[in-house]
Amino acid sequence: MIQVDLEEERKEILKRYRKLLKLAKPLLKDSDAKVIKKAFNVSNEAHKEMRRKSGEPYIYHPLEVALVCVEEIGLGPTSIVAALLHDVVEDTDWELEDIEREFGHKVMQIIDGLTKISGVFDYGSSQQAENFRKMLLTLSDDVRVILIKIADRLNNMRTLSSMPRHKQLKIASETMYLYAPLAHRLGLYTIKSELEDLYLKYTDTDTYNFIVEKINETRLSRNKFIKSFIAPLEEELTEQGFNFTIKGRPKSVYSIYNKMKKQNIPFEEVYDLFAVRIIVNTEEDNEKADCWQVYSVVTDFYRPNPDRLRDWISTPRSNGYESLHTTVMSNTGQWVEVQIRSQRMDDIAERGYAAHWKYKDRAAAATKASTGLDDWITQVRTLLESNDGSAIEFMDDFRGNLFHDEVFVFTPKGDLKVMPIGATALDFAFEIHTEVGAKCIGAKVNQKLVSINHKLKNGDQVEILTSSKQKPTEDWLNQVVTSRAKAKIKDALREEKKSSILDGREIVQRKLKQMKLDFNSETVEQLRAYFETKTANEFYYKVGKGIIESTSIKGFKDFKEEKRQKGKASFEVVKDESSFTKEIKNLKGPDHDQLLIGEDMDLVDYVLAKCCNPIPGDDVFGFVTINEGIKIHRTSCPNALELLSNHGNRVIKAKWTSQQEIAFLAGLRIVGTDRVGLINDVTKVISNELKVNMRSITVDSDAGIFEGTIKLYVHSTQHLEKLMDNLAQVEGIIKITRFDY
Predict the structure, then answer these.
(1) CA-CA distance, 61 to 52, in Å (whole number)?
(2) Are residues 676 and 647 in the same domain?
(3) What is the C-alpha separation between 539 and 527, in angstroms, rounded?
(4) What is the CATH number of the domain that holds 719?
(5) 614 and 518 in one domain?
(6) Distance in angstroms (rounded) separating the CA atoms of residues 543 and 588
(7) How far apart are CA 500 and CA 609, in angstroms?
(8) Which of 210, 225, 323, 617 is 20 to 30 A from 311 in CA distance terms?
(9) Sign for the pseudo-dihedral over CA of 369, 371, 376, 381
(10) Do 649 and 723 belong to one domain?
(11) Sheet containing 733-739: which strands, arranged edge to edge?
(12) Residues 11 and 153 in one domain
C-alpha cells in the first residue's frame, strides 16, 4: 500500500488551483473568480474519495483540463467552470439539474454534451461512436463542448502511462482517429501535434524513442545551422525597419515518422526536419504587404522551390489558418521550410478557434477567420440531422470532413468555394444546392465539358449542368467525398430503399422463425457480419432486393451450429472484453485475464488476422469479432485504428507464449544493384544459414536496379531481424524492409 501524505497533497491541489486563477486573471470580470472558486470546491468535494489509475487525487484531472483550456486554447470563465465540473455528473450523485441551479444553463448545457451516455446498447453497436455523436449534437450550439473535450483528451493522453496496455491502445487510437483530426479542423495545431506524438509514443514506443533520440543527437548541429541560416535575414529585416521574431523549430516526431513511412526512407533522408518561422509585428491593414515584403527578402538570399509556395494569406484555410509557406535552398544544399505570418495570424495558428474571440471586435478579421468554421459547423449540423443510420456510419462520414487539405474553386460568377482535395464536380453541385446536386448530369470546368466524377483542381471555374430526368443512384456515393453530398445522396436513396428494407426485414423474420432462431439485435448483427454487409439495413435491403437469397440464410444456421459444436469459449459466450475476461478466468483460474497465443488454442477460438499477419514478438491485441471468434492483430495493422476507436469494448489483452516454435509467414522487400549471382547469394543466406523455408520469391531488374519480394516462414520478430541483418551484408543490397501483404 502506497503511503499518502494528505497534507502535501492538499498543498499541491491549492498550488495548481492558484496557478489556474493566475493564468485566468486577464480573462476574468466582476464575479467570475467567485464562480470558479465555487466550481473548484464542488469538484474537489465530489471527487475527494477518488483517485486516478496513477494513484494521484482525481481532482488533479479537472484542474489540469481547466489549465489546458486557459493556457493552450485561450478559453474564458464559462469554460473553466465547465472543465472543473466536467466529470461530476458522470462520477457522483450530482444531476444536471443541480449544475443548472448552481451554475446556470450554459454550463449545464456544455457538461451535458461532455457526459457519456450510459445504459444498454444494441449488440454490435458502438458505445464510443454513440457518445461522440451525442457530443457533436451540442457542437452546433456551443463549440466549447468540443474544445473542452479536446483539453480533456490531451490530459488523458499525457497521463496514459498508468493505464493497462489494452486501454492505452484503445484510448490512443480513438485520439488519433477522431480528436487529432478534430484539433486540426479547429486550428489547434500545437495540440494536434502533441496528440499525434503521444499516440506514436504508446502504439509504437520503439520508433518514437528512436526518432526522439535522433532529434536530440542532431540538436547541436541543427541549432548551428539555423543560426547561420537566419543571420543574413535578421540583418536585412532590421535594416528595412521590421519589428519581427524569427524562430526555428523541429517538426513533430509524428510528422517525421509519417514522412519516413510514406516515402519509405530512413531518418537521415528526411531533409526538412525543421521549419523557420518569421513573425512580423505589424498593423492589420499592412499584414499582407509586409508578409510579401519579408518573402522577397528571404528569396533574395535563398532560391525558392516554385512548386512549394503556399499562399494562405490571400485565401485562408477554412479553419481560419493564415500564413505564407515557402521552401528554399540553403547555402549548404539543404531544403528549409520558411513560414511567414503576422502576430495575429500566429495567435490564430497556435490557438485556433478560440483566438478568433480576441480579434472578433475587428469585423474584417473575425469574418474572414470564422466564416469557414461556421460553414463547417453548419455542415456538421446537416449531417447530424440527416443521419438516421448507425453511429459508426455517421463517424465515417464525419471523419471524411476533418483531415482534408483544400482546393479553391469558383462559380461562374466568380464566388469562391473551398472544397476538400479530391472533391468532384458532383460534390460542387451539392455544395451549391441539394436540388442542383440531385439533377446534376455533368459540368463545364474552365469551359470544358467533364463528367460528374471529374476531380477539381485549385483555381477551376465550375458550371453545373442539370437535367430534370436525372436522379441519384447508389454509385454516386463512390463519386463524392464531402459529407454534405454523401448525406444528401443517402437521403434521396433512403426513400427508394425503404420498401425493400421492410420487405427484407419480413423475409428475415419469417426465415428465422422457420429455423427456430430468435429474431433479435444479436442474431441480426451476426447475420450482418456473416453476409459481410456494413449495416443491418443494408443487409435487409439486399435480402429484399434478392441480392442475398433467402435460402442462403440457412447457411448461417449451419455455420452457427458448427461453431457451437467446437465447444470452445467463443461465439455464444464471448461478446466483448468483460465476457472474455470472465470466461478465461472460469477456464484458467482467477489470475488469468489475457489470451496466451500458442497456448490457449484448445480453450478459445482465435485466429491470426490476415490483414497484418502478426508473428511472435510483434506488439498485438485480441479483437472479439461477431462470428469468427477472436482475431489477433498487430498494433500497427492498417485496420487497428478503426477497430480500437469504434469498438474498444471488444479489445482484449493478448500476448505471445514462448513455449513452442511455430512457423509464421512474413514478407520482405529487397532493393539493390543488380549483379550476376545476387539471387543465389540471397537464397543461400535464407536457406543455409538460418534454415528458413521460402514460400515465394519474385524479382524484377531494370537498368541495373534490382527489386524483389520474398515470402518466408520465421519463428519470431528476432528471427526475422537476424535474417534481415544477414541479408544486409550481401554485396549489392541497399535496403531491406518488412511489408504487409
Answers:
(1) 8
(2) no
(3) 8
(4) 3.30.70.260
(5) no
(6) 42
(7) 34
(8) 225
(9) positive
(10) no
(11) 693-702, 705-714, 664-673, 733-739
(12) yes
CB 395 within 8 A of CB 136: no
Among residues 610, 734, 596, the alpha carbon closest in space to that of 674 is found at: 734
* pLDDT digits 0-9 by tens, 573-606: 567 777 777 777 777 777 677 778 877 666 777 8
Taking only the tens place, the pLDDT of each residue in 72-106 is: 888 888 899 999 998 888 877 888 888 889 898 88
Residue 575's SS3 state is coil
What is the phi/psi pair of residue 187, to 5°? Answer: 80, 15
Tell me the CA distances in angstroms from 394 to 319, 385, 390, 584, one per residue in order: 22, 11, 6, 34
The CATH number covering residue 133 comes to: 1.10.3210.10
Q: Do strands 654-656 and 651-652 pair parallel, antiparallel, or not at all (unpaired)?
A: unpaired
**What are the C-alpha distances in Å from 18 to residues 9, 33, 79, 174, 437?**
14, 11, 17, 32, 55
**Of 114, 132, 159, which one is at a domain's C-terminal end?**
159
Is 543 in the same domain as 682?
no
Q: What is the per-residue pLDDT for 602? A: 64
Q: What is the pLDDT of residue 362?
A: 44
| 584 domain-assigned | no
Asked, for residue 174, whether it belongs to a domain, the answer is no
DSSP 33-46: HHHHHHHHHHHHHH
Q: What is the largest CA-CA distance in the chain?
A: 89
**Percent above pLDDT 70 for the chain:** 86
216 with 253: CB under 8 angstroms?
A: no
Whether residues 645 and 508 fall in one domain: no
Count of CA atoms in the C-beta half-sphere (13 A) of 499? 1
Inter-CA distances, 592 with 508, 582, 621, Å: 40, 9, 16
416-438 burial: b if 16+ Cβ within 10 Å, else e = ebbbbeebbbbbbbbbeebeebb
Question: Which residue range(s) make up the domain with 537?
Answer: 492-563
Q: For the chain, what is the domain count?
A: 4
**Residues involved in catalysis:** 90-91
Secondary structure of 640-677 in the HEC alphabet?
Answer: HHHHHHHCHHHEECEEECCCCCCCEEEEEEEEEECCCC
Question: What is the average pLDDT score of the chain?
Answer: 82
* pTM of the predicted protein model: 0.77
635, 651 Cβ separation under 8 angstroms: no
Amino acid symbol at 109: Q
* DSSP per-residue letters across 99-121: HHHHH-HHHHHHHHHHSPP-S--
625 in Cβ contact with 566 (< 8 Å): no
Q: Which tens digits make up the pLDDT trace of 347-358?
A: 888 777 666 555
222 part of a folded domain: no
Question: Coil, strand or helix: which one is 213?
Answer: helix
Burial of 140 (0-12, 13-18, 19+ CB in 10 A): middle
Residues 605 and 729 in one domain: no
d(CA 714, CA 437): 54
Give the Cα-Cα-Cα angle 168, 171, 173 (nearest 5 degrees): 100
How far apart are the C-alpha atoms of 503 and 497, rounded to whole Å?
10
At position 56, the amino acid (one-letter code) is E
How far apart (Å, rounded) are the C-alpha atoms in residues 462 and 371?
A: 22
Q: Are residue 94 and residue 17 in the same domain, yes or no?
A: yes
Residue 519: CB atoms within 10 Å: 14
- C-alpha–C-alpha distance, residues 67 and 80, integer Å: 8
Distance CA(125)–CA(119), nearest Å, equals: 13
